[in-house]
């Protein structure tokens, strides 16, 4: 056997650590193919699992051995000893370093030596699982990971609070059922772009994870409803004892979501504060009416590209009154000054408004908005051809806290309007005037008065 000093230098494992894990303890080592570039000579490279081609599987391994027994192993040179200084770091420093690694890299670290194995499986590092990439066999990876994390508490993983699986086409309902069944303390679930997820999987999660507060199913086109009943048509009243605790819900690009599904979601998720329905093209004003009946605590709402939402929908959203801080109605072509007046009149604490592409908005709508929502910090009225320098003057004289302003492709805007804004809104940090007919002198005027402002423009003479 190699000398004791060599063994201590490589593994840094005191006798007291040997009892922490048995040699038969299984754990997922690498979440990528064994023949991939990231797996050579038993060591994981820095290559992300998302860049690996071929079928990806979760491998199960035992902890590294406590000593090196191969007869050909030679003592390390002085130069090699200097490269192993990382082993001199105390455990708490190593755990802090490991906390910045994604799940696949953390699994690789567990294969380095016995000490790293024990540190990599410290419960503090496993409050979050993060997996990305199209080739990962996510269902199998989640099964192996949860099995390992349930080692000390059979069938229940009490430490895992966050699961993020992004763009993994091989994630199915089976994988989410594994999480729902084993992780009752789950608080955050993000599965954007995992289009094989269905309503069944969402039902399993929300019914078995009562503490779930953050749910992102954006791009999951099969998800049409979120409820505590398998029958989507059955609704619960807000006074019903059993409700879903979700506060943040992102259903961007859930194209099949309709008013009836939104009605069911609203009836079950009455605690919603953040709701994003971007490009849910089947949603209408009727769906928003259902939403406002049950979800009266919404602070942020996006209905961008919901082409059937009109001024009547704005009247419903205005019922949120001073609670509403963020609203995105970009490219909702049926919204005009009338809808803006509803929002401005009742939602006086609005901080962010994205109305890009709402071509029915004019200077009158901007005037009413500026006079009633004086604490506005971010405004996007790009591609609103009827907004001119007159509207900008109302903004400049009322919204002194404005930090971000987008006027992209506003045909009626000139340099005069920009100068009025710059002379009054000193805290302006971002200005977008791309495809606007503004002079170089006007842009220089803005730069002189708003020194921290980043100007996005298409004037080649200004630099």
Automatic annotation (TrEMBL):
GO terms for cellular component: centrosome; SCF ubiquitin ligase complex
Keywords, ordered alphabetically: Cell cycle, Cell division, Cytoplasm, Cytoskeleton, Leucine-rich repeat, Mitosis, Repeat, Ubl conjugation pathway
Subcellular location as annotated: Cytoplasm, Cytoskeleton, Microtubule organizing center, Centrosome
Listed pathway(s): Protein modification; protein ubiquitination
Source species, domain of life: Eukaryota
Region (Disordered): 33-63
Major localization listed first in the record, in broad terms: cytoplasm
InterPro entries: F-box-like_dom_sf, F-box_dom, FBXL15_LRR, Leu-rich_rpt_Cys-con_subtyp, LRR_dom_sf
GO terms for biological process, alphabetical: cell division; protein polyubiquitination; SCF-dependent proteasomal ubiquitin-dependent protein catabolic process
This protein's record includes keyword Ribonucleoprotein: no
Function field: Substrate recognition component of a SCF (SKP1-CUL1-F-box protein) E3 ubiquitin-protein ligase complex. During mitosis, it mediates the ubiquitination and subsequent proteasomal degradation of AURKA, causing mitotic arrest. It also regulates mitochondrial function by mediating the ubiquitination and proteasomal degradation of the apoptosis inhibitor BIRC5.
Subunit structure: Part of the SCF (SKP1-CUL1-F-box) E3 ubiquitin-protein ligase complex SCF(FBXL7) composed of CUL1, SKP1, RBX1 and FBXL7. Interacts with AURKA; interaction takes place during mitosis but not in interphase. Interacts with BIRC5; this interaction allows BIRC5 to be polyubiquitinated by the SCF(FBXL7) E3 ubiquitin-protein ligase complex.
Protein's name according to its UniProt entry: F-box/LRR-repeat protein 7
Protein source organism: Aegotheles bennettii
């Amino acid at each position: 056997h190699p000398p004791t000093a060599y063994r201590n230098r490589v593994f840094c494992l005191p006798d007291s650590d040997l009892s922490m894990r048995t040699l038969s303890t299984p754990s997922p080592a690498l979440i990528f193919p064994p023949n991939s570039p990231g797996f050579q000579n038993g060591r994981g490279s820095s290559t992300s699992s998302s860049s690996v081609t071929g079928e990806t599987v979760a491998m199960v391994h035992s902890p590294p051995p406590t000593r090196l027994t191969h007869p050909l192993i030679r003592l390390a040179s002085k130069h090699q000893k200097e490269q192993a200084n990382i082993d001199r770091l105390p455990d708490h420093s190593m755990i802090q370093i490991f906390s910045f690694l994604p799940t696949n890299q953390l699994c690789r670290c567990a294969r380095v030596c016995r000490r790293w194995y024990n540190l990599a499986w410290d419960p503090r590092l496993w409050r979050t699982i993060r997996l990305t990439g199209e080739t990962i066999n996510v269902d199998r990876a989640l099964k192996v990971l949860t099995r390992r994390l349930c080692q000390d508490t059979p069938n229940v993983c009490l430490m895992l609070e966050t699961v993020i699986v992004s763009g993994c086409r091989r994630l199915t309902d089976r994988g989410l059922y594994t999480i729902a069944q084993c992780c009752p303390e789950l608080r955050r679930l993000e599965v954007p772009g995992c289009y094989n997820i269905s309503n069944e999987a969402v039902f399993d999660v929300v019914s078995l994870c009562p503490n779930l507060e953050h749910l992102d199913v954006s791009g999951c086109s099969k998800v049409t409803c979120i409820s505590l009943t398998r029958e989507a048509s059955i609704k619960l009243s807000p006074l019903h004892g059993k409700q879903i605790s979700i506060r943040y819900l992102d259903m961007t690009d859930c194209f099949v979501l309709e008013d009836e599904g939104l009605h069911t979601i609203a009836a079950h998720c009455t605690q919603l504060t953040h709701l994003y329905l971007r490009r849910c093209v089947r949603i209408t004003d009727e769906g928003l009416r259902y939403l406002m009946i049950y979800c009266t605590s919404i602070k942020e709402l996006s209905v961008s590209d919901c082409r059937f939402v009109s001024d009547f929908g704005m009247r419903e959203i205005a019922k949120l009154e001073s609670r509403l801080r963020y609203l995105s109605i970009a490219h909702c072509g049926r919204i005009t000054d009338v809808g803006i007046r509803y929002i401005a009149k009742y939602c006086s604490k609005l901080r962010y408004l994205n109305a890009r592409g709402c071509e029915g908005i004019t200077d009158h709508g901007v005037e009413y908005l500026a006079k009633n929502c004086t604490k506005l910090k971010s405004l996007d009225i790009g591609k609103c051809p009827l907004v001119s320098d007159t509207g900008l003057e109302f903004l400049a004289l009322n919204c002194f806290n404005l930090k971000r302003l987008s006027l992209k492709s506003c045909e009626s805007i000139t340099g005069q309007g920009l100068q009025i804004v710059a002379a009054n809104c000193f805290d302006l940090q971002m200005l977008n005037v791309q495809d606007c007919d503004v002079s170089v002198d006007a842009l220089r005027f803005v730069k002189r008065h708003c020194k921290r402002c980043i100007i996005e423009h298409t004037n080649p003479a200004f630099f």
